[in-house]
Design brief:
The protein contains six helices and no strands. By secondary structure, it is mainly α. The protein has two domains: 1-38; 43-127. Helix 2 (43-58) packs antiparallel against helix 3 and helix 3 (64-81) packs antiparallel against helix 4. The mean pLDDT is 78.
């Protein structure tokens, strides 16, 4: 290959590199815009993820712990972005957001138990309609409404 052939190859590679870089920048910007414009999760989405977590907690599957970790992290993210309407129980929206922090705190602990995770999700369970006396212990993995 002559010197001019090497120069042409370098230029071609440079052009391909610049095009690829431009494509990556465009794709990254699109992802950032999409993630920033994601609407706040609805109460139904939050409750569905809580149900999925409680199902994983009560399961006996081989990879149950991985499923619990995945579901708990997802519920934590949903709780962070959950916002109830200002006129609809704003104090519960704050406690749901706090539950997101609590879930992450539990998962960062060296030795957490499922009861710790269930306790951390209690504000979310309350938002989803679970009721139980506040003086009693948190519910089992599949909470049942207390007998009246």
């Amino acid at each position: 290959m002559t010197g001019s052939g090497v120069v042409r190859h370098r230029r071609a590679l440079l052009v391909v590199g610049v095009v690829l870089l431009a494509l990556l920048v465009t794709a990254s910007q699109r992802l950032v815009v999409e993630s920033a414009s994601t609407p706040d999760p609805t109460r139904d989405e939050l409750c569905a993820e809580l149900d999925a977590l409680t199902t994983a907690i009560s399961g006996e599957a081989v990879f149950a712990t991985q499923e619990i970790n995945h579901r708990a992290r997802k519920l934590s993210r949903l709780a962070d972005f959950y916002r109830a309407a200002a006129d609809e129980r704003p104090e519960r929206a704050a406690s749901v957001a706090q539950a997101g922090d609590d879930i992450r705190w539990v998962l960062r602990s060296v030795a957490w138990e499922t009861s710790d995770l269930v306790t951390a999700t209690r504000p979310i369970a309350l938002e989803c309609g679970w009721t139980w006396p506040l003086t009693t212990a948190p519910p089992a993995a599949q909470p049942q409404a207390p007998a009246s």
